[in-house]
């Protein structure tokens, strides 16, 4: 589980995360924030991992006790949207890495549209082909690519800490364009986006301890390592795109080859996880068709002009939707249900998780409240003036946006559930002969 999650986080996007705030904070503060922020943010991912290891059910199925049998479909939308966005961003980075690799090897500038060709072939077409051959091939490839990527990241860290580079890092004057709370917000939002994949992967853990600690240590250590490397590289070169600062730092072409192999592996695993989540809810769909339908919508992200714009869009979108969503799920599982889920009831359309026509209105309301809180505090980051509040911007510099949204959603859900819904979802559940057969068939 450690290698799986470390591999999931050893991607070019993790370098970019460290680059988003390093110049604003300066060398030492950026390193401290990267370490503290990752340790704090990935705690929530480790907590979420426990329920899926314990019960061996997919992430979306484990949401039914909180959101209702049909209400949990929102989680499918969330994981698909995030998967499409990440696939697009990683594909664009794939295009840059491929273009630079060929330039270094051949010494020529290549052909027109070279970037798009490498991005589409390497980021979209190759992962699709691999998944059509073997749906779980991404996990097999990670056994090879992850150790290589990890070793390469450590090598870059050592290179960046050489005497000459270290002197430049220490003497760098922070720009102060953004505050430390913005850095924490970026790290926290990046971690929250990971929650969509926790259940899909942690079903394979053999023990609760292994699943929880493998998730936490794998994500946190990889996040800290790559965030620090990306931040230092950006301070030294002024570039946010990893492929560009790798070129300026005179890293060998092997660096780009390692990046390409690791990125293909990560995209393959992400698409697989998204496809399996959709098939959990709609089991009659064809895996191959679902795989293609998830991968192709990522194409527009390849044509977005700025990597930074695409990256910020995913963080904003993910934090606003996923933060309150997971607050409700965690408060429901740990505090209201005391870590107890009736697995058979999760597959019963007429069971206690039916609520009102399959939807839990309290959970939906709490989700909306959390999103409103996030937009009030962080709406200015979207660039839309109609959701930009001067008071919200002031409060953001102290509170951030994602963590307050999580806390508010959790409190609203806990209070309203205690008042109105306890009898619907926390009572003793008995099966009748009428519905038991259908439930067991669906589980099978």
From TrEMBL:
Transmembrane segments: 28-49, 69-95, 115-133, 140-158, 178-198, 210-233, 253-273, 285-307, 313-335, 362-383, 395-416
Protein name: Cytosine permease
Gene3D superfamilies named among the record's database cross-references: Hydantoin permease (1.10.4160.10)
Family: Belongs to the purine-cytosine permease (2.A.39) family.
Any matching Pfam family: Transp_cyt_pur
Recorded superkingdom: Bacteria
Topological relation to the membrane, as annotated: Multi-pass membrane protein
């Amino acid at each position: 589980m450690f290698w799986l999650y470390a591999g999931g986080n050893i991607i070019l996007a993790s370098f970019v995360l460290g680059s988003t705030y390093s110049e604003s904070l300066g060398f030492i503060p950026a390193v401290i924030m990267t370490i503290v922020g990752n340790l704090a943010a990935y705690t929530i991912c480790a907590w979420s991992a426990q329920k899926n290891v314990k019960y061996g059910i997919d992430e979306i199925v484990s949401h039914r006790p909180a959101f209702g049998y049909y209400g949990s479909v929102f989680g499918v939308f969330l994981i698909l949207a995030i998967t499409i966005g990440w696939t697009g961003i990683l594909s664009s980075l794939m295009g840059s890495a491929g273009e630079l690799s060929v330039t270094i090897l051949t010494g020529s500038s290549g052909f027109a549209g070279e970037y798009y060709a490498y991005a589409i072939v390497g980021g979209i077409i190759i992962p699709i082909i691999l998944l059509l051959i073997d749906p779980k091939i991404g996990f097999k490839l990670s056994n090879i690519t992850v150790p290589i990527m990890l070793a390469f990241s450590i090598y870059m860290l050592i290179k960046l800490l050489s005497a000459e580079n270290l002197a430049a890092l220490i003497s760098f004057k922070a720009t102060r364009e953004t505050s430390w709370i913005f850095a924490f917000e970026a790290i926290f939002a990046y971690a929250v986006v990971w929650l969509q994949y926790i259940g899909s992967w942690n079903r394979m853990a053999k023990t609760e301890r292994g699943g929880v600690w493998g998730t936490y240590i794998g994500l946190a250590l990889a996040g800290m390592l790559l965030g620090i490397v990306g931040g230092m590289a950006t301070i030294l070169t002024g570039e946010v795109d990893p492929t560009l600062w790798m070129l300026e730092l005179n890293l060998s072409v092997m660096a780009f080859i390692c990046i390409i192999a690791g990125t293909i592996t990560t995209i393959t695993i992400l698409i697989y996880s998204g496809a399996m989540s959709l098939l959990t809810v709609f089991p009659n769909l064809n895996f191959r068709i679902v795989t293609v339908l998830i991968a192709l919508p990522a194409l527009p992200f390849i044509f977005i002009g700025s990597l930074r714009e695409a990256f910020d869009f995913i963080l904003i979108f993910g934090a606003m939707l996923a933060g309150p969503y997971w607050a409700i799920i965690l408060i429901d599982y740990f505090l209201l249900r005391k870590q107890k889920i009736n697995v058979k009831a999760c597959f019963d359309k007429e069971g206690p998780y039916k609520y009102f026509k399959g939807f839990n209105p309290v959970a939906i309301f709490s989700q909306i409240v959390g999103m409103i809180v996030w937009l009030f505090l962080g709406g200015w980051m979207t660039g839309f003036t109609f959701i930009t509040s001067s008071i919200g911007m002031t409060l953001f510099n102290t509170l951030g946006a994602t963590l307050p949204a999580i806390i508010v959603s959790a409190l609203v859900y806990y209070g309203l559930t205690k008042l109105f819904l306890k009898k619907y979802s926390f009572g003793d559940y008995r099966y009748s002969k009428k519905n038991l057969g259908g439930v067991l068939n669906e589980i099978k």
